[in-house]
Design brief:
Two copies of one chain form a homodimer. Chain A is mainly α. Chain A has two domains: 54 residues, Arc Repressor Mutant, subunit A; 120 residues, Tetracycline Repressor, domain 2, CATH 1.10.357. The first copy, chain A, contains ten helices and no strands. In chain A, helix 6 runs parallel beside helix 9. Chain A is globular, with a radius of gyration of 18 Å. Chains A and B meet through helix 7, helix 8, helix 9 and helix 10 of A and helix 7, helix 8, helix 9 and helix 10 of B. Chain A binds a DNA duplex (26 and 26 nucleotides) through helix 1 and helix 3.
Chain lengths: 182, 182
DNA sequence: ATTATCTATAGATCTATAGATAATGC
DNA sequence: ATTATCTATAGATCTATAGATAATGC
């Protein structure tokens, strides 16, 4: 059915626009224009703007990427983030910060993202401690690389080669992973 | 004159609301209510919503804080950030990311924040290199700590003592500062 | 017949301005 | 007289819905 195609186009358009401009600043009409349909169509398909956000939230998508690699875990996490940048793929770490900020129920959104992201990192780095402290530290470092490169445009490839960036920022993240637990 | 007082209240209210909810999601009326005046008064004082943002942008405020301390520079930068959190003071590193996202002219805002923040960090850590690579890396790490603690609520003081956080995240930032230049 | 999609519009904002009133300085 | 501040409102959105039309499956 062609409904699936339109629905996919709408979700893809929303993903890009929410990531680029944020939730409030993105209108249903913006999404419709980019998806090539009418605003009413967007509403019919997604029910509400909040429903559209739920469908377009990029976190699920990327958070469970293939983790397999011979590289130490800290480097691997940084590598995948840098690769997303080089491929112009959505960056969930950067988007999450903004979506929390703009959420209607900010505390609920914050708690939800915190739980999911901390759990995802803990699983990746094998953090089985109760407090998940290392995961918090790793997550903070990754959020910074995401916000720095994607939102503020730091460390662009003409300034620093992607491999060198992975090497240097990866070393920082790896130092947390290799560090003490509590 | 009492005009100064109202103006200050408006700017203070805007600073808090922009930092909390973002630019688009904050309305002139929200600011007026919090400042205890009418929306028309806010407009008369600031001219436009963009003018209000310009006046309420927290970056200038905090970026040129007293840098004097015996502590190594990386630790000092982290300490000031953590202290702002513990004092519930506005966090320019966290706010900057969101304001770039929501800016009408995103690329211009991005370039402006990048220039100012990189320069501020370069001055602090004595980075005189042409590419300011270390400053970019330090800035990324600090943006992550800011976004992580303030927006996502990571590493709260019940989970990790502020001094220990400064010790551990400070070590990462200090490692960048002490690292090679290019 | 059913599904996909559109046009038209209601109802609720939001920013910004115009013009009135209250407070202050001379 | 001038400055501070308010009420009222214009004009431009925005989300969401109602109802019409076009496309598709049986």
């Amino acid at each position: 059915m062609s409904g699936t195609t339109t629905r996919d186009a709408v979700i893809e358009a929303a993903r890009e626009l929410f990531a680029r401009r944020g939730y409030t600043a993105t209108t249903i009409k913006d999404v419709a224009v980019r998806a090539g349909c009418s605003p009413a169509m967007v509403m019919k398909l997604m029910g509400s703007k909040a429903g559209l956000l739920a469908a377009a939230d990029p976190s699920e998508q990327t958070l469970d990427e293939a983790a397999g690699s011979r590289e130490p875990l800290g480097y691997g996490l940084v590598r995948r983030l840098v690769e997303r940048r080089d491929n112009d793929a959505p960056e969930p770490f950067a988007t999450a910060l903004m979506l929390i900020h703009e959420s209607a129920d900010r505390e609920a959104a914050r708690a939800d993202y915190e739980r999911r992201y901390v759990a995802a990192i803990a699983e990746r780095i094998g953090d089985t401690s109760a407090d998940k402290l290392k995961s918090h530290l790793v997550l903070a470092a990754l959020l910074g690389l995401a916000g720095g490169t994607r939102t503020m445009g730091l460390l662009r490839s003409d300034l620093m080669d992607s491999e060198e960036l992975i090497e240097r920022y990866g070393a920082l993240v790896q130092a947390i992973v290799d560090g003490p637990d509590g």
